[in-house]
Amino acid sequence: MFRKVLVANRGEIAVRVMRACEELNISTVAVYSEADKNGGHVRYADEAYKVGPARAADSYLDHDAVIEAAQKADADAIHPGYGFLAENARFARKVEETDGITWIGPRGDSMEELGEKTKARKTMDAADVPIVPGTTDPVTEVEEVTEFGDEYGYPVAIKAEGGGGGRGMKIVRSEDEAADQLESAKREGEAYFDNDSVYLERYLENPRHVEVQIVADEHGNVRHLGERDCSLQRRHQKVIEEGPSPALSQELREEIGEAARRGVAASDYVNAGTVEFLVEEDTERKAGELLGPETNFYFLEVNTRIQVEHTVTEELTGIDIVKWQIKVADGQELAFSQDDVELDGHAMEFRINAENAAKEFQPATGGKLVTYDPPGGIGVRMDDALRQGDKLVTDYDSMIAKLVVWGSDREECIERSLRALREYDLEGVVTIIPFHRLMLTDEEFVAGTHTTKYLDEQIDRERIAKAQEQWGTETVQADDEDVVEREFTVEVNGKRFEVELEERGGMAIPTGSGGDDRPEQAGPSGGDDAGGGAVAGDGAVTAEMQGTILDVEVEVGDEVAAGDVLLVLEAMKMENDVVADAGGTVSEIAVEEGESVDMGDLLVRLE
Q1: What b/e sequence results for 184-195 when a residue is b if at least 16 CB atoms lie within 10 Å of its CB, and e otherwise?
Q2: 101 burial class (0-12, 13-18, 19+ CB within 10 angstroms)?
Q3: Tell me: the pLDDT tens digits for 556-603?
């Protein structure tokens, strides 16, 4: 077994992996950026190494910096968590080629085979797993899109090969849209995934999103651990996940699970992964009715990593998936058969995000956990890293924690979840807890008849606003605190170390004339009323967070009114509308689609 594991991630998933390591008597190493130097995962780890500044590309995504940290720490394995480098085949290969360090995850070649969508479709098709009608080779010409639409009908989905979560996907509803949407999908694919290859699929109008958890070892054993239903989504981003699916009959459940197991076995895949499917919903189905074995389901994609929602499956099966990731990487054989896997009861996961659901799930741009008292009791699990008094770091994602609730059946799970959400005492940061409480009383969700389109197209948004008003909290910008930094050189057992010491709340070290000549500190950015952009007195609209420009809605010379959308900024896996605070004329556009921006960068200027 490994002696020491470096976790190449941050926040709650880093702590989750470290806890599994602790139970296996493995020492843990954290990496952190400048923004995360006081992060919960840094506190939890046995040791920690800084890998760069706040910008993810220069820290958590820096291949060499992460591997160098592992070597400095004398770690003999790296676990990537999810996100960041977790599905980067090039990084996985670099780790595999580094002497003395094992990659805890699927091999780089397997990531390429199943992570790239056209290759995965070919693999699944060969294994007799149903795939959505579409192309198995990349498309480059508009004529290919229109010919596909003529054969299979519109709408048609154009998808980036490396895409996921709705990014790099464009919907073509008529022949007239084909050229623009093809170019847009290729551009997003290049911007997000460094790969402008795209493919086509028939676009399903009313699907459910059902995924199957897989674990495979290097001895040829492949097990599926049942399914999770992730149909409650906003703009293709999962909000509440549950298992088992409230919509599937036992026959259909077994059919989908076996298809996932069969497809992964055909690919020579090793370690944990998730096979995602789209299941065609019967729009006439009533509460209590289930989808039978005649229902169409189609392979969507494989996530070659641990999923955010793996916790649901762990609560249902009692199997620690992260521990098995580590054991499989160590060469151990799975100790349970497929018949040993049983789903007990019902479980749900609630992403406790620092977002305002009443404002299109707009992420908070800062804040401090003035009060943080999470719920407990039977059947309640918390995966988190933050503690009371911590400041919210918004450079990466908006997740504060994951609340996971188990019940003996779905009804008890919903009742217990409502109790736990009411019990969750969190102040100082706006969250989507009110939205979760609303959904647990929502007729469609409770009946289990919702589809992936429900939140975007059907729900009454006024209900969300009322829930936020009744149960919501507001973001309290963290007060700037005087921090005195001192640098020392210390010697331990003949080895010299450079040490940085921070003193908080004390007197600053005087400089210059000794008077109070320090410049004024910048104030907060204005709470959470902005949608990813801030407006300066000179009409400059600047980015309030690091992200990528998805769409520019205006042109130079356009007249805009207060509230008009200027552009769409993707940050922390969420799309944020940047709106005009006041009317004016667009005099300058400083960015273009696909461009990455940092906090404070100029986006648009109004006169």
Answers
A1: bbbbbbbbbbeb
A2: buried
A3: 999 998 888 898 887 655 667 888 888 899 999 999 887 878 777 899
Q: Residues with Cβ < 8 Å from 568, sequence gap 6 or more?
A: 549, 550, 551, 553, 575, 576, 577, 578
Listed range (21-30, 198-207, 383-392, 507-516) with the worst mean pLDDT: 507-516
Tokens of 508: 């600053």
pLDDT value of residue 539:
87
Mean per-residue pLDDT over the chain, rounded:
89
Nearest CA among 425, 428, 404, 382 for reference residue 12: 382
Determine the Cα–Cα distance for residues 407 and 95; give it in Å rounded to an integer. Answer: 40
Angle of helix 108-115 versus helix 117-126 axis, rounded to 10:
80
Query: Range with the lowest mean pLDDT among 157-171, 267-281, 512-526?
Result: 512-526
Classified as helix, coil or strand, 74 is coil
Alpha helices in 433-538 (DSSP H): 433-439, 443-447, 461-471
| pLDDT at residue 202 is higher than 70 | yes
Number of C-beta neighbours around residue 160 at 10 A: 26
Burial (0-12, 13-18, 19+ Cβ within 10 Å), 155:
middle
Q: What percentage of residues in the chain have a pLDDT greater than 70?
A: 88
Closest by CA position to 342, among listed 241, 260, 244: 244
In the chain, the amino acid numbered 376 is: G
Rounded to an integer, the average pLDDT of 446-472 is: 96
Neighbours of 436 (CB within 10 A): 25
Preceding amide of 155 cis, omega within 30: yes
List C-alpha distances in Å: 68 to 71, 473, 498: 5, 42, 17
Euclidean distance between CA atoms 165 and 120, whole angstroms: 17
Q: In which residue are the tokens 């690919």 written?
A: 267
What percentage of residues in the chain have a pLDDT greater than 90? 70
- Confidence check: pLDDT of 604 > 50: yes
Q: Is there a contact between 407 and 415 (Cβ–Cβ < 8 Å)?
A: yes
β-pair partners for 391: 368
Q: How far is CA 184 from CA 157, 158, 167, 325, 552, in A?
A: 12, 9, 11, 37, 12
List the strands of the sheet with 602-606, edge to edge: 533-535, 540-543, 602-606, 584-589, 559-560
